[in-house]
Amino acid sequence: MNYLAACCVFKDESRYLREWVEYHHLVGVERFYMVSNDDSPEEAQALLRPYIERGLVVFGASRGGLFVEMQRLIYFDVIRLARGRMRWLAFLDADEFLLPVARDSVPELLEPFEPQAALAVNWACFGSSGLREAPALQIGGFRMRLRDESEENRVFKSIVDPARVSGPLNPHRFVLAGSAPLIDEFGAPVSHPWRNENDPFFGTRLRINHYRIRSAAEFAEKAARWRASGHPDLVDAEAVRRYWEHHDRNEVLDETIQRFVPEVERRLAAGRG
Known about the structure:
The protein has 273 residues and is an alpha/beta fold. The chain is 30% helix and 23% strand. The protein has one domain: Spore Coat Polysaccharide Biosynthesis Protein SpsA, Chain A (Alpha-Beta Complex).
């Protein structure tokens, strides 16, 4: 049995796919379940082919459908694939990077939680950092985020034991076997479907850097796609402006993840795959 896997369902993320895999492999992820929701998944598959051939990435494609519902159905399949093969399975998006704040690898920080069935890991939400265009790397370019105590940072994602999970309640929380609780890194039970309402809540050992809006140009592309698909928060230009202003809050310089950037750059330049 391997120790840590990550699942990512993505759409229109070709720019950053290799960075996402290389970074998470560097911090201890041993297997990736990568599922494309692209209309033409061939580009993503070609980018990931070196990892697929090494057995590092299990690739799938699921075209069309409502993204969140499709994502939930894929999570059922990934849990089944990982059950009995992986001790821990993290569910992340392509703009979310699992960051071991207090160590050099995620497995080191998961060891104290071995008796648990699932761990809630909170976001650290980043703004555009004033960037107009896409940076070479997400983890290298975006360095400004919301304050620790921001309510946006209360949102969590889950790392679960596939053997003790029956399925996803939503993309954030999973239905656990028996009476097993979902806990946060402080050992406190988390009851809300997607928010950690405990205090303290912000990750001091393990958290997820969430590059929610990225650069201005990338957000404009994303907003256009979301509006075309009927996203309720982006119904018109005024709603798009309000969304940007609400999330583009660059209040704290956070370079915690920067220590991993040189090695990720080296691996990408070497075309490790």
